[in-house]
Amino acid sequence: MTETIVLLGSNGQIGSELAVALRAKFGVSNVITSDIREPKNLGEGEIFEAINVLDKEALKLLFEKHKPTQVYLLAAMLSATGEQYPLKAWDLNMNGLLNVLNLCVELGIKKVFWPSSIAVFGPHSPKVNTPQYCVMDPNSIYGISKLAGERLCEYYTEKYNLDIRSIRYPGIISWKTAPGGGTTDYAVHIFFEALAKGRYESFLSENTALPMMYMDDAVRATIQLMDAPAEKLRIRSSYNLAGISFTPTEIAQEVKKILPNFEMSYSQGDPRQAIADSWPQSIDDEYAREDWNWEIKYDLTTMTKDMIENLKNN
Questions:
Q1: CB 147 within 8 Å of CB 208
Q2: What's the pLDDT tens digit per position in 31-70?
Q3: What is the C-alpha separation between 234 and 209, in angstroms, rounded?
Q4: pTM above 0.90, yes or no
Q5: Residues β-bridged to residue 112
Q6: Mean pLDDT along residues 244-252
Q7: Is the separation of the CB atoms in 225 and 167 below 8 Å?
Q8: pLDDT at 53
Q9: Over the chain, what is the mean pLDDT?
């Protein structure tokens, strides 16, 4: 059967690169991208529809027009931006998801991808090798909305027989798109600033360890999960996904191996620090490894080398 995919939130950090991978896999005309704003450029044959996921009627017309077999919902407000606009973040993150799930039930669209985040964990979650199941007490509106979204996904899977799949993404690092208002964004900014200015001031303290992942691995994991046989999947909330855990000091050391004159400094009092302090330092993803054979390819050294090479060339 030919798959037809609608990707909502396609202009974002993950969406823009996932769209490329999905078009390569399913064909350009079978992937319809969508966002609230037009993209800067469209390739030959690429289909884009401007839409706000909070507009349920417009969303329904989009689905009726293209008749997708899979929907990827990536439209969201991230952690740091969400703390500035908590009610807007809740509205977008929750009602956008509910609109998609209810329309999928109504129109018979069975397969959905929705991303969760390590932000679902909180101050009382285990910090090291955070397990799939544990205390989850997020203290950011982003994390609260993602935890509520996980419960909705599990509920709609069980009650309405939707095939919803999800990953708790760690921080995502990419050279192709600018950061989008997340707590882990320093690990993207550092590369841009290292090449442009030779220095970077981190808004996180030097020993703050957080789970991260290179974009290539994140996209590959997403498609691998969507390709997995449904009967193999034990998790219908969202899968833990481990990446590379490192501190600002450790990534700065890797950058200095390639750019010896690079200098790193640290600011004080950034509100993102409190969010980072509540998050895991490392993740246990045994369910993903056992259920759909997940394994990471990029470590800190290979990711740093690839980031700097690509930024220099582009």
A1: no
A2: 999 999 999 889 999 999 999 999 999 999 999 999 999 9
A3: 29
A4: yes
A5: 71, 164
A6: 96
A7: yes
A8: 98
A9: 96
Catalytic residue among 72, 142, 266, 298: 142
| Domains in the chain: ranges and CATH | 5-170 (3.40.50.720), 172-212+243-313 (3.90.25.10)
Residue whose token pair is 């582009």: 314
| Residue whose entry in the numeric block shows the structure tokens 């069975």 | 110
Q: pLDDT of 110-147, one tens digit each?
A: 999 999 999 999 999 999 999 999 999 999 999 999 99
pLDDT of residue 179: 67
CB within 8 Å of 19: residues ≥ 6 apart: 7, 10, 31, 33
Question: Amino acid letter at 149?
Answer: G
Contact 69, 109 (CB under 8 A): yes
Structure tokens at 266: 């640290």
Q: At residue 286, what is the residue type?
A: E
Contact between residue 281 and residue 209 where contact means Cβ atoms under 8 Å apart: yes
Tokens of 83: 């703390």
156 is known as an active-site residue: no
DSSP string, the chain: ----EEEESTTSHHHHHHHHHHHHHH-GGGEEEEESS--S---TT-EEEE--TT-HHHHHHHHHHH--SEEEE-----HHHHHHSHHHHHIIIIIHHHHHHHHHHHHT--EEE--EEGGG--TTS-SSSB-SSS-----SHHHHHHHHHHHHHHHHHHHH--EEE-EEE-EEE-SSS---S-GGGHHHHHHHHHHHTSEEEESS-TT--EEEEEHHHHHHHHHHHHHS-GGG---SS-EE---EEE-HHHHHHHHHHHSTT-EEEE-S--HHHHHHHTS-SSB--HHHHHHH-------HHHHHHHHHHHHHH-
Task: Take residue 35 and report the two structure tokens written for it.
Answer: 């966002």
Q: Are 296 and 219 in contact (CB under 8 A)?
A: no
Q: Computed over its alpha carbons, how large is the radius of gyration of the chain?
A: 19
